[in-house]
Amino acid sequence: MFSNSRNRAPRPRRSPTPSGGTAPRNTTSQPPSRSPSPSSPAGGKPLYLCTPFADAALVKGNFKTIVMLPKYTDIMEWVAVNIFDFYTNLNEFYGVIAETCTQHSCPTMSGGPTLNYVWTHQGGKQAMLPAPTYIDYVMTSIQNLIDDENVFPTKSSASTHQSFHPSFPATVRTVYRQLLRVFAHIYHAHYPQILHLRSEPHFNSLFAHFLAFGREYELLEVRDIKGEPNAPVGVGLLWERWKEKGILES
Ligand SMILES: [Zn+2]
Quick one: which residues bind Zn(2+) (predicted)? Predict the structure, then answer.
């Protein structure tokens, strides 16, 4: 039954929202400018950590119940369906704010005041990319994986572990880590736009669900959520706060 939601119906390739992320965003290549100071007025706490924005949510209470494996559901299938949903929802959010995420505004893939994620090309070569390029690479690579029947099989709804490749857990951990980085960038650099759209309850709920699911199924390591001491992930503090409030499990 769960496979229905990601059956082969034609899916929007990229952000289906009217503001459109489908047009190539990298047509003009401008030299990187100084990094703008994001969502942190006067060097204070970022807005996403401020009351009431930090705790605004559509889902009240603890997220444990909605991440639990439903009866008679294969765990691989459950993980696949949820990853598809996280990807789709996050892609829509990014599509809405994409016009404010440009090479000029976001010359690096920032995820905290001193944190810039580095893209690793296949083959291991590393590159500092502007955030819109980085995110485009992430979303395109995940879409390709989802479309690949060998990675995300959709046949046989009574799926068994055999239908998933043994490398599936490793693949989805990589996908999860990249999705986390997109969340981290949006919170760090674009939270004012989320507030402007009054989408913070929605976005917080999506992220809390994502974190709860990732921890429950060991798709996310604490190190990825919190970052390094000299380069912390901004949303690491949000995660701590939600644990203190009982929204997430400690
Ligand atoms: Zn950006």
Answer: 101, 106, 185, 190
